[in-house]
DNA sequence: CTTGACCTTCACATCAGTGTTAGCGTTCGA
DNA sequence: TCGAACGCTAACACTGATGTGAAGGTCAAG
């Protein structure tokens, strides 16, 4: 597919897709006319990149770990230097810490919401006055 | 404690602690001479902030959710407007998505590392040559 | 008085992302 | 065939956010 379709299917501005390519996050083959062509997995790949960026990973790291994440376990280790492995392990551990931190705080937030707004958010409904006084 | 001690105990540059205060993430009482004074929980609070920032949450959101995360379930809902609740719910869901994304990719990365480097990372040890040829 | 910790403020670095401009080629439908 | 929509490159600038550096001054203790 061309850039326009990828843009629509991923909800990502064309501009940004070119930017990701510039950053080495995605690849595109080129047609004779110079147009970028993307294969089907590119859709997931872009979404994956967006997710990781949103989770705080810098492009530099994403670029490094992306090749290790392909579904078919294609052998990537020929070019895996010890330093590279070390980097990946550190990033894996950092991701784990992130997950723990997020989970902890998400659960706390969730618990809070359960208290202030038990079951089925009435938020967005017709609320004329804040429940600030003594209720009931 | 003063800023220097908090800095040491959290591994956070003084400059950054002042920045967090400027952004409304932490509070400090002031001594007569203008020095900032922090209480004991500030240590955890700073670490929590660092963790959330690292996980991709912007300061603006952290500032909003932090008060809901205090261990003693102090009643915060007097000032909880419906919009605020909505924001918190959206952020909770976003955190969940982040967790899922991170977990998925962390597991894939982990699996990859298990393949290229099964059990007990020898990385960092004395590795004279990369294991690029057929092993065993 | 010197040293070190603290204060404020301005400026800067980095990074992701965006808008815009200018110039040009391609695709596709009316 | 014409024009709109789409694509390309390259560049420039700029936002918004996190994070730093350094200047210049204050405070407290040896």
UniProtKB/TrEMBL annotation, chains A, B:
Question: What terms describe the molecular function in GO for this protein?
Answer: DNA binding; DNA-binding transcription factor activity
* Domain of life per record: Bacteria
Q: Which UniProt keywords apply?
A: DNA-binding
Cross-referenced SUPFAM superfamilies: Putative DNA-binding domain (SSF46955)
Q: Where is the HTH merR-type domain?
A: 1-68
Looking up InterPro entries in the UniProt record yields:
DNA-bd_dom_put_sf, MerR-type_HTH_dom, MerR_fam
Pfam families in UniProt: MerR_1
The protein here is known as: MerR family transcriptional regulator
Organism of origin:
Streptomyces inusitatus
């Amino acid at each position: 597919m061309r850039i326009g379709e990828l843009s629509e299917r991923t909800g990502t501005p064309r501009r940004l897709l070119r930017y990701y390519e510039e950053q080495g996050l995605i690849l595109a083959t080129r047609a004779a006319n110079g147009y970028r062509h993307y294969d089907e997995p590119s859709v997931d790949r872009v979404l994956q990149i967006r997710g990781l960026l949103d989770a705080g990973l810098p492009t530099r790291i994403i670029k490094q770990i992306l090749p290790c994440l392909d579904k078919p376990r294609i052998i990537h280790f020929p070019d895996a230097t010890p330093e590279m492995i070390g980097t990946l392990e550190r990033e894996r551990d950092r991701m784990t810490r992130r997950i723990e931190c997020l989970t902890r705080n998400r659960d706390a937030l969730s618990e809070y919401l359960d208290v202030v707004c038990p079951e089925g958010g009435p938020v967005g409904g017709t609320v004329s006055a804040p429940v600030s006084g003594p209720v009931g």
